[in-house]
């Protein structure tokens, strides 16, 4: 493995190879590759997002972050079905990301729930056919991030052009990197095969309904930064084949620790250094593989933005409370949802195993005759 190939490794994979390196030279090469990759990624993020902000305004920086995250992911991850349908759905997803979060907040909560449910449902079915690819975490995070930063009027027009440019850039990379793959499925087959009682369909509907209801709960409670409630709920519900308890505790522990640590560091540093907290936390984030450490460091970027709006103390309290609401609702929804679906599945299986009505009649007649014979 050369240096460039080592730079393409996932953080957790690279750290595993560092621990199991055969000699010091190999270990040092892997460590250097991890650090260089981290620095280059952060530098690219700063340059890329700064250019988009210059072109489309700082108010649309959330769209720039979304485009950057998708750009990094589509190099390696596709949708798992034919390329033509994937590119069409990729464009539709960008349209939904652009308009649905803004429209959903401009109407009453009931209509907002419907818009979120339909938009999230399409994203989940089209981009999350392979749960282990992480599509739910990426595209639904993008949805929630844009939901937390809506725009209107001229800024919305600028966001449309920015997302169109992002869709073009990401779509080209999507096509170049995955055009030679041989797909055995089409999107129409995936839609036809959808079943609420299968493991995949059950999980997809769980994420769609749970996240939509989580957003609705935040709207009804009228909390600020509803996207934090949604992201916490998404984190709990998007784990495929796993119970949510462990991830919920990891997120809450990371959020509480990260928020408190941010408050301490923010107070200790001079005001001139506050703007660099996002870059420093980004560099450390690129070296982390464990979820709880990622959650802790993500607090710095999230709170840095919120502090400008609410102040440091209120932002910390709000982030902790919103994550508690999101995690608690997510865990509760998970158990209620799975209980109901499993009951329906068991009832459905029982009905499928019952013999036809004419056989039931003959069986009952036989039992009656046999009982009469015994009495005689």
Structure described in brief:
This protein has 376 residues and is mostly helical.
Observed structural traits:
376 residues, mainly alpha, 79% helix, 0% strand
Give a description of the structure:
With 376 residues, the chain is mostly helical. The protein has helices at residues 3-7, 11-19, 24-56, 61-74, 83-104, 109-127, 135-147, 154-178, 187-193, 199-221, 226-237, 245-268, 277-285, 291-310, 312-353, 357-375. Residues 357-376 have low confidence and may be disordered.
Summarize the helices and strands and which ones pair or pack.
Layout: H1 3-7, H2 11-19, H3 24-56, H4 61-74, H5 83-104, H6 109-127, H7 135-147, H8 154-178, H9 187-193, H10 199-221, H11 226-237, H12 245-268, H13 277-285, H14 291-310, H15 312-353, H16 357-375
Poorly predicted regions: 357-376
Q: Characterize the biggest β-sheet.
A: none
Beta content comes to under 5%
Outline, from the CA principal axes?
globular
Backbone CA Rg: 25 Å
If you average the pLDDT, what whole number results?
Answer: 87
Computed structural class: mainly alpha
SSE topology string? HHHHHHHHHHHHHHHH
Report the total helices: 16
* Count of DSSP strands: 0
Q: What is the helix fraction of residues, given as a range?
A: over 70%
Distance between the termini: 87 Å
């Amino acid at each position: 493995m050369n240096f460039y190939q080592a730079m393409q490794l996932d953080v957790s994979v690279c750290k595993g190879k560092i621990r199991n390196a055969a000699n010091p030279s190999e270990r040092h090469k892997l460590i250097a590759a991890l650090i260089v990759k981290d620095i280059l990624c952060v530098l690219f993020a700063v340059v890329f997002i700064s250019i988009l902000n210059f072109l489309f305004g700082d108010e649309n920086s959330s769209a720039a972050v979304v485009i950057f995250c998708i750009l990094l992911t589509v190099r390696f991850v596709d949708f798992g079905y034919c390329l033509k349908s994937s590119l069409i759905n990729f464009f539709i997803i960008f349209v939904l990301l652009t308009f649905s979060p803004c429209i959903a907040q401009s109407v009453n909560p009931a209509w907002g729930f419907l818009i979120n449910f339909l938009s999230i449902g399409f994203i989940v079915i089209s981009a999350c056919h392979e749960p282990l690819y992480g599509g739910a975490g990426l595209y639904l995070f993008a949805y929630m991030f844009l939901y937390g930063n809506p725009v209107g009027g001229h800024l919305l027009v600028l966001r449309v052009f920015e997302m169109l440019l992002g869709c073009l850039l990401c779509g080209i990379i999507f096509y170049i990197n995955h055009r030679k793959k041989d797909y055995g499925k089409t999107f129409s087959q995936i839609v036809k095969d959808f079943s609420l009682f299968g493991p995949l369909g059950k999980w997809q509907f769980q994420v769609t309904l749970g996240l939509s209801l989580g957003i609705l709960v935040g709207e009804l409670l009228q909390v600020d930064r509803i996207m934090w409630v949604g992201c916490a709920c998404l984190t709990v519900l998007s784990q495929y084949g796993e119970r949510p308890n462990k991830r919920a505790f990891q997120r809450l522990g990371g959020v509480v620790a990260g928020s408190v640590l941010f408050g301490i560091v923010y107070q200790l540093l001079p005001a001139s250094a506050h703007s660099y907290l996002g870059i420093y936390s980004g560099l450390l984030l690129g070296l982390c593989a464990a979820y709880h450490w990622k959650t802790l460091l993500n607090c710095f970027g999230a709170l840095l933005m919120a502090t400008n709006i609410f102040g440091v103390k209120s932002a910390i309290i709000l982030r902790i409370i919103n994550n508690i609401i999101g995690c608690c609702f997510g865990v509760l929804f998970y158990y209620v949802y799975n209980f109901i679906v499993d009951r329906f599945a068991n009832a459905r299986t029982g009905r499928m195993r019952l013999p036809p009505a004419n056989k039931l009649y003959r069986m009952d007649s036989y039992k009656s005759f046999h009982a009469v014979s015994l009495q005689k």
